[in-house]
Amino acid sequence: MNPRLFRYSTGLFAPLLSNGPKLGFAGGATANYLNQFDVGSPISMTGAQAKYSNTGSWTAALYNRSYWDDNTKRFLGAIVQAKARNDYNNYLGGGPASVDTHLQLYYARYQQRIGDLPWYVGGSYVYSNIDPQAADDAANFIMTRYDIGNVYNGGLGLNVTYDTRNNVMNPKSGMHLEFAITSYNKAFAGDYDYWAYNAQASYFQLVSSKLTIAYNASWLATPDAPSSSQATLRRYRGYTTGENSAENSLVTQVEARYAFRPRWEAAVFGGVASLFDGDHKIGDQGNWYPMGGVGVRYVLDPKSQSLLRMDYAMGKSGNSGLYLAMGQPF
Predict the structure, then answer these.
(1) Beta 248-261 vs 264-276: how paired, if at all?
(2) What is the phi/psi pair of residue 219, to 5°?
(3) pLDDT band of 99, cuts 50, 70, 90
(4) Taking a C-beta distance cutoff of 8 angstroms, is the pair 35, 42 a contact?
(5) Closest by alpha carbon to 84, among 126, 61, 51?
(6) Which of 205, 144, 155 is nearest to 181 (CA)?
(7) Is the residue at 99 inside a domain?
(8) 266 vs 144, more confident
(9) Which of 23-27, 162-166, 173-177, 249-253 has the lowest mean pLDDT?
(10) Is 215 domain-assigned?
(11) Residue of 236, 212, 231, 309 whose CA lies nearest to 277
C-alpha cells in the first residue's frame, strides 16, 4: 500500500449535554470515525450524534468533513433532524411565549484549492424545512403578527475559504476566513427568492507554549428572507438560537485557552453580538447581546487534537447555558 494513501484512523465516542432555561437539560452521545487520507491532508471526520431533552426537544445529525489529495480538495456535508420546544422569555420582543420548531436540514459543500495558495473556492447546496408551531396563545399572536410559519428553503452558494491554521481541530496559530453568497430560489426547491451573505473570520495567536488567544467575528445578512429564516445568534453561547432575529447579525468573540496539563485546557471567553435591521436599530442597546463564561477542554485524541469541551456561559436578562460538546467553538 502506498504510505501516502492512508496514514491514520481511529474511532471516538463522547457524551453530549446542554442545559439552559429555554431548552432544559439535554443529554446524548456522539460517535465518530477519524481518518487521514494522505500525509499532506488534515484528519477527516465522519460522525453521528443525537440528543434528547427533558422538555421533549431532540436533535439527530449525520456529518462528514473530508480533506484529501494533499489538502487540495475539501468536502463538508450534514443531515440534521430536530424538534425544539422553546419557552422564550421575550419571543421577538413580544414577551413570554412557547414555540415548537421542527427542522430538517441537508447541506453539501465542495471546494478546490487554488494552486499552492491557502485559498479554496467551491460551491454548496442547502435545503431546509423550518416549521415553527405555536404552543400557546402568546406565540400564536406573535407568529401571526410577523407572518411566521412553515418555510422550505433551497439555495445554491458560492464559497471561498482562506485557511492557514496549523490544526483544523484545535488551532494554536493561523487564520481562517470564510465567505459565502447563497441564492435561495424557488427553482432550487424553496418557497422564496432571496439572497444570504455570510462572512466569518477567526485568528489564533500563540502567546506562549501554553496560552492561545482566539478571536472570532461573523456577519450574516438575510435581506428579504422570510421571518423564520432571518439571521439569528448562531454559534454564540449563552443564548437560544431563534429567540430573536433580524435581517443582520453581527457576532464578535474572544477566548483565552490555557493548557495546564498535556491533554487539558482551561478557557475564559466573552463576546458581544447584535441583531439589527430597519426596525431594530444597531444603536439600540436592547439589540445588543453580551456574554461571558468559562470552560475546560480535554483532548480525546492527541494525533488529531479532537477534543471534548465543557462551557458555561451567561448572557443578559437571565440567559445562560451549559454545554458539553466536541470541538472548539471556533
Answers:
(1) antiparallel
(2) -140, 130
(3) confident
(4) no
(5) 51
(6) 155
(7) yes
(8) 266
(9) 23-27
(10) yes
(11) 231
Cα dihedral value 25, 31, 36, 41, nearest 10: -20
Q: Cα(243)–Cα(232) distance, rounded to whole angstroms?
A: 8
**What does the alpha-carbon distance between residue 4 and residue 56 come to, in Å, rounded to a whole number?**
47
Rounded-to-integer distance, Cα 128 and Cα 137, Å: 27
Do residues 144 and 120 make contact, with C-beta atoms less than 8 angstroms apart? no
C-alpha–C-alpha distance, residues 92 and 45, integer Å: 37
The total domain count for the chain is 1
Q: State the alpha helices, DSSP H only, in 217-292.
A: none
For Cα atoms 51, 52, 57, give the angle at the middle one, nearest 5 degrees: 115
Half-sphere exposure for 94 (CA within 13 Å, toward CB): 19
Residue 318 in grid coordinates: 437571565
Residue 176: pLDDT band (50, 70, 90) is very high
Nearest residue to 291 (alpha-carbon basis) of 268, 275, 307: 268
- Confirm whether 1 is domain-assigned: no
Mean pLDDT estimate for the chain: 93
Q: What is the DSSP letter of 241?
A: T
Strand partners, 25: 19
Contacts for 117 with CB less than 8 Å, ≥ 6 apart: none
pLDDT by residue (tens digit) across 202-228?
A: 999 999 999 999 999 999 999 999 888
Residue 168 covered by a domain: yes
Question: Cβ neighbours of residue 216 under 8 Å, at least 6 residues apart?
Answer: 200, 201, 202, 203, 251, 252, 253, 254, 255, 329, 330
**pLDDT confidence of 1, banded at 50, 70, 90?**
very low
Q: What is the domain range of residue 318?
A: 8-326
Interval 110-156: pLDDT, tens: 999 999 999 999 999 999 998 888 888 888 888 888 777 788 999 99
Q: Could you tell me the CATH number of the domain that includes residue 166?
A: 2.40.160.50
**Which residues does residue 73 pair with via DSSP β-bridges, in sequence order?**
68, 112
Q: Does pTM top 0.85 for this prediction? A: yes
